Amino acid sequence: EVQLVESGGGLVQPGGSLRLSCAASGFTFRNYEMNWVRQAPGKGLEWVSYISSSGSTIYYADSVKGRFFIFRDNRKNSLYLQMNSLRAEDTAVYYCATDFDWGQGTLVTVSS
Amino acid sequence: IALTQSPATLSLSPGERATLSCRASQSVSSYLAWYQQKPGQAPRLLIYDASKRATDIPARFSGSGSGTDFSLTISSLEPEDFAVYYCQQRSNFWTFGQGTKVEIK
Q1: Most B CBs within 10 Å, among A46, A52, A99, to test the B interface
Q2: Residues A70-96 pLDDT 10s
């Protein structure tokens, strides 16, 4: 069974940093492209970032470019999102996802 | 690539047919997916490549279209189908439509 489990969310002050993790199991993680998607409270879905299976190709949404960094460790079957210079508008549930499966998400709240 | 879903809300009764639309600002070929999301849950993939049902998705869900115009049809609404539905393009990164809420009339 495919499982994607996000962790690392929480309350952080504006300007702060947070690192999200996504633990993958039930499939050959190193063969899969991965994405982060977020959903602000009561709002729709917003794609955040993409990383290729090897980690050599990376893309970001304009809203997070230069502040967020995606990376992966295929030995640990894990995906990460380093979030810096956080803003109130980054408050959302963050999901890791493949083309077919999503985790349950982790809530990030940016507030003073 | 922007995706526009219509209508924003669809009010129907169980057993009725639901047709949801998604229009892309430029061609996405067949790289279009549909998701269902219920409150407090992650989105669930229903349809990918415009018309292929994902694993364990009931046959009452079907997708069609190519290029810029797509639709999701639920042939006969079950009580568990009342939810928000999003389309997603995978042609150039990912983007999502704003969602269509299917509510009980």
Answers
A1: A99
A2: 999 999 999 999 999 999 999 999 999
